Amino acid sequence: MSDKKTLFINNVEVEFTNEKTVLDVIRNNGFDVPTFCHRPDLTQFGACRMCIIEQDGKWIQASCTMPPKEGIRIETHSDRVMKIRKTILELLLANHKRECLTCNRSGNCDLQKYAAEYGIDEIRFPKLEEKDYLPIDEMNPSLVRDPSKCILCGACVRACSEFKGHSVLGFSSRGSNTKVQPMNGKHLCQVDCVFCGQCQAVCPTGAISIKSSIDEVWKKINDKDKKVVVQIAPSVRVALGEEFNLEPGENTIGKIYAAARRLGFDLIFDTNFSADLTIMEEANELKERLTKGGLLPMFTSCCPAWVRHLEIHHPDMINHLSTCKSPQGMLSPVLKEFLPKYYEGYTKENIVVVSIMPCTAKKYEAIREQLIGETDYVLTTQEFAKMIKTAGLDFKRLKDEPANSPYGQYSGGGTIFGASGGVAEAALRTAYNMLTGKNLENLDVVPLRGVDKDSRSKEATVDINGKSVKIRVVSTLMEADRAIKEIKEGKADFQMLEVMTCPGGCINGGGQPYSCKDIKIKEKRASGLYKEDKELPHRNCHENPDIIRLYKEHLEQPGSHLAHKLLHTTYSPKSELLK
Questions:
Q1: Which of 464, 504, 499, 558 is closest to 320 using CA atoms?
Q2: Which residues fall within 8 angstroms of residue 298, CB to CB, at 6 or more apart?
Q3: Residue 86: pLDDT band with limits 50, 70, 90
Q4: Band of pLDDT at residue 2, cut at 50, 70 and 90
Q5: Is the pTM of this model over 0.85?
Q6: Structural domains in the chain?
Q7: Which of 33, 108, 142, 176 has its Cα between 20 and 30 A from that of 408?
């Protein structure tokens, strides 16, 4: 017996099965309605009322919270509905700081888009005066919060609460005085914000945005006394193309190298190389802990938002963290230390390292007290796309170019770092080799893969020399806290824990092109990474010829004295931020 039922949208009979809301039915059948507060990855809130429909010619309903029923008739743009939506837009615009020409979300703002689509050329209500603008919070390295552009959709509050486990942001006051802010009106850097940027990734306006480093990077590029080198993170290659109307998941890394050269970067390297390097050190550390009775489970340390969360909320668990720096944190000192040996005119003092990352928290990582001075500037994928557009480059027509050597080659293990489970899978491949002298028979550790809502906690068990080694992979800090609770209660049976703060991993980082309305985009980006993994000549990090060369010429072996000096770090409790 079929589960299909029917209802009518604008007098067209359509089928539905397991859709939870009328909004889902509308969008699954070729129609659409505007939304501000609706995000598929978040619980439904029904705050903005832009998605209203008219049911059976009588009732006005919010389609994002309305369950579908057999036989009902809904209209998505009746006269009543259109008048209400226009009034909502006028009210929002009246209370909005309207500086569209200079707002960094101009051209990519839902409020701006709907105002144009609905022909709002006059606002009947008193507008927000400059004297009523609320203070801007830009005291942290990653995000800018401008509450005068907030439309109170609550998406940021829910994202923080549902991904982090508790919300740094919340609603305060009532009525016309309602606003979204951290507790007691503090700055983000004064509370336990981890700077993951998921709040700005779901914000429909410019109320929360990325703190830009574009101007500073242009200045360094144009400084004749500086050698500006750039590194590009794994997940950037499968997302940047979206800014130039390419399909999500399309691997554009060759075009990215070409674009970086045309922007004026002196040398181009790939953070995939240092992802391989991270695995060499991390897998060696895991091997040491497994064989010599070290503290288990070992936590991955690539995600700076996760590291900050642990330092704030679980300082007693810091020793579980791998001491390895992230791939960004490893490549920067390697470039400054060793490039002068290969390139004339390069010195540790005149090299400026810029990294292009999917992550706003990487901006924070670059100024951690233990890492300051290594990575000089961090650009997000969005910022890099703006630089390409500013330079007038036709990205789609650029021909693929290679990275520079000697740190230009990478393995498939380095590539998959960008998806949830990728770090653990790459580490398992190399740790298995270090412990057995053989490669895993099947390099695709499928149980650790998956970026959808149902894949935020995954496990895989591998037999290594007769001993079962279990890996757990989680994305979102809510899942991380569940795993930590198990450890503290003595119930954990896994030896390694990979944590990524952003749902789905770095492919869905806070600095990636906006994708919060389409949950399929994460899957397409991850598929692009796994496709490259399959196609590369080397899939294991320990087989990368440039990694082998680096150890042979400089580092000797994983865990050596120089490797520890350049590639490892320490952590410090930050529980005072909870006061």
A1: 499
A2: 285, 286, 289, 320, 321, 322, 495, 496, 497
A3: very high
A4: low
A5: yes
A6: 5-77 (3.10.20.740), 89-210 (3.30.70.20), 215-578 (3.40.50.1780)
A7: 142
